[in-house]
Design brief:
The structure is a single chain. By secondary structure, the protein is of the alpha+beta class. The chain is about 40% helix and about 20% strand. The protein folds into 3 domains: about 30-130, no CATH class; about 140-230, no CATH class; about 230-270, no CATH class. The chain contains 7 helices and 8 strands, in the order αααββββααββββαα. A 4-stranded antiparallel beta sheet has the order 2-1-3-4.
């Protein structure tokens, strides 16, 4: 006890000698590296449960939410520190500013967990965690509409009646390819997004016997549109270009022939 009192007396004496600015810096350092009492593992678990209830009510389906904690390690082998007492907080940063991961499961037969990382204080302040970006949660109806729009555009471009059908997320061997149509049933790896998944479309045109299947990343389809099957436009467009060139040559030939008749009294052909 004598040793403890001596140490305490020594520290108090040194603190009294510090300038107000030094005391403020020391206080800020201690505050930044001491986890606030309100941010506990139990509080985060309750927050995740509340988030699940709110999302389930809003979407009309069962949504699960879990707080996995502070992510660390390579993306391919991501791990998490669940307990706030174990978080690694950089110097000068508050515990509440630590990015933490919440995992969401939006239902479906084979739905996987989607992870969304966000600052701890954002979730605590709102009273619920923020789910993955809504723009990445494309719907089946939107994908079918994109396929229909692509078919109309391609039909106008080629001068043929083209059909395009959305197939879904491909899986299985190439010889026996299968598809998960509904985005809610896609398999999304932890830490990945729905918008980064590969999806497939089937194209058909009357001058070909078999359909052509294309695969694209979902966000590319949303932002850039569907990519046509390889070689499609070239064959038909070349026939159209040749036809236009022949018409242009015939028109030029008629005009030149008229001039030659007037000037030289003979006809001229152009091909």
């Amino acid at each position: 006890m004598v040793v403890n009192r001596s140490i305490s007396t020594c520290w108090c004496s040194q603190l009294r000698q510090l300038s107000p600015r030094s005391v403020q810096v020391l206080h800020g350092h201690l505050a930044a590296n001491m986890p606030p009492k309100q941010i506990t593992r139990s509080a985060l678990v309750k927050l995740a449960a509340r988030t699940a209830r709110l999302l389930s009510h809003a979407r009309g389906e069962t949504v699960l939410c879990e707080c996995w904690g502070q992510p660390y390690g390579p993306r391919a082998h991501r791990r998490y520190r669940a307990d706030p007492l174990e978080w690694h907080v950089p110097f000068g940063q508050r515990h509440s500013q630590t990015p933490i991961a919440f995992a969401f499961n939006f239902g479906g037969v084979n739905a996987q967990w989607e992870v969304h990382v966000q600052p701890c204080h954002n979730a605590v302040t709102r009273g619920h965690a923020t789910p993955p970006c809504a723009s990445s949660r494309i719907t089946l109806q939107e994908l079918e509409a994109l396929a229909e729009g692509a078919a109309k555009s391609m039909s106008l471009e080629l001068g043929l009646s083209v059909t395009c059908k959305y197939l879904g997320q491909p899986y299985g061997p190439a010889a026996r390819r299968r598809y998960r149509r509904d985005p809610r049933e896609w398999r999304v790896a932890a830490g990945d997004r729905h918008s980064h998944q590969t999806i497939a479309f089937a194209w058909m045109r009357p001058d070909q016997k078999s359909q052509a299947v294309t695969e694209q990343r979902c966000d590319n389809v949303q932002h850039q549109g569907l990519a046509a099957p390889a070689g499609w436009p070239c064959t038909v467009l070349w026939a159209e270009v040749r036809k236009e060139l022949e018409l242009a040559a015939a028109k030029a030939g008629d005009e030149a022939n008229q001039i030659w008749l007037e000037e030289f009294g003979c006809s001229l052909s152009c091909r």
